[in-house]
Specification:
InterPro entries: KDZ. With about 600 residues, the chain is of the alpha/beta class. It is built from 18 helices and 9 strands. α10 runs parallel beside α16.
Amino acid sequence: MMVTAPAMSRQAFLKMLEHRSVQAGRVLSVLIHFSEASSSFASVSTNKRICARSITLFVQHVLQTCSLAVCCDGNGKHYRFSKSKGTEEPPIYEGLFLAMDEEVATFVDLVRGNMKSGNDSAVCGTAKFTAGREMSKKSGAQIDEEGIQVAVCRHGFLLRGLNHFRGEIYAYPMFLQKEMSMKANVDFFCMDVTCRYWPYLNKIAEGLPELLPLTEMRPFLSVMHAKAHTAKCEVRWGGRSQDGAGNTVGEEVEQVNSFLSRAALVTKYMTKSGRVNMLTQQAMGWNRRKRDNLHQVLAHRYVKITERAKVEAASFSDFKKEHNLDQETIQQWVYDVRQWAVTERVYAPGCTEGLRVDIENITVTLLRRKQDLYRQHDSNQARQRKRKRMRELKKKLREKVVQYNTGVQEEQIDEELACSLTEGYTLPWERHANGNTFRLKRSVFEQVMLVRRLEEEQSILVKEMSQHIMFLLKEVQEVEALRGQTLEGIKTSNFGDLTEDAAHGLKSVLSRRWHCLKSQHKQAVHAYSGVAALECHDLQLQQDIEESDDNDYTSPESEEEDLVKVSAKQHRGTGELFHKGSVTSTRWRTP
């Protein structure tokens, strides 16, 4: 129609067809909005390609800026009812954020084929939970997907995800770990069941050599989840005990899951493709806000960590004076606690030994269920059942403690501290038998680890700020070079594979992208300059800032002055308004 009747409006043409239908007595079948169907389909197809490219580049950006740690956890609230069948239409964002189900299923079968499972679901010690398993049967409920598993960086950027079909089995985080290892050199892999997952990974890697690079990462037990494990497990695997981890807590995925769970009330009734599109859109929006505020977050975090490091160092100095501790004693105590954590306790036969096992089992079970009360259950009825079960376990724990204290004269359990799940309380048989109480040694160990992690965090943040500035600078230069090539092609009428209108549209998009990146770079330099001014020893950050300031940018105004007169008439349809050499795009959006 645009060729045969270029002056005729499409809407007017459709109204004419509608009028002819009424005249002929036919049912109205031509809608007014049908005129935009072709344009909308082309726009959706283009946006899909743009989003695929943007997500790939964004993940590379995040892993280049902050590749220290990747956190992985499941979200059981994002299940989907099997009755929501719908059509077989593929998702628009298929495979962009959530991995393809076929790829995940193939990997799970590969892992199962190389490991005979003992169905050991133990998380820590002798306690058993369903949060981590080698194998799991499909749920008997009328649901299709049982949840999702996501991987995020230590600053909360969503990197990758997949659908659960068999509960939280170890193969799911292993798949995400493999995906991340192929994109960047990640130092730490954070989980809430690291103490059970890492030995399983080592066994699998023996039969699958392609998974050996995964064992080069370092295990990291989430700081808060470590409180629900045994004392030895917290010291051995906990994030506070890992040298080089900084102030990483490993709980960033919980914040992301809380945001994603907002859509769980509607995604459970969606079709498969609609659910994938919704979650991908959520992830893209979350990452966009994180990206725009990254410079503020890093700068604020550095100032906050610096102040806290000074406070904790002064507090630890007072603690040493109070207990009259020298540096040699502190180092020895730290070594003693580490050795205690890696030493397996030998269970001796006897009635008290059985009670010890029962008390450990119930204590860790209660701590774990307390952690998962709101994280894994999305209804008050489910939480009420769990609370009732927890009250029964606490009552049983008190009975076991009383029974144990009755048969033991020395080193009795503090009933109130043990039954109230007091943080930091250590059972008597887990302590050292030398002069100083083990609780004091443990307290010194935790203080030393905290001060070290805060000092490491300052260096890590300086490195991340430098990487962020250099990455933005590189992006600006790449877009500027591509934009210059496009402008040169327009001047010489060499459009390549593009039409003339498409070339002008590309120039508009690149100009907008160039201005956005330049603005982000300037904001980051301004924020980090204030941080570098506070701390004189951040020489590397100051050098990177000065280097980025020395890189001058070519002004878009001078390049476009020659094109204003020629392009003003041609680009009215693209929404570009040229005024005094500046470009304002009203229709093009930043990819």
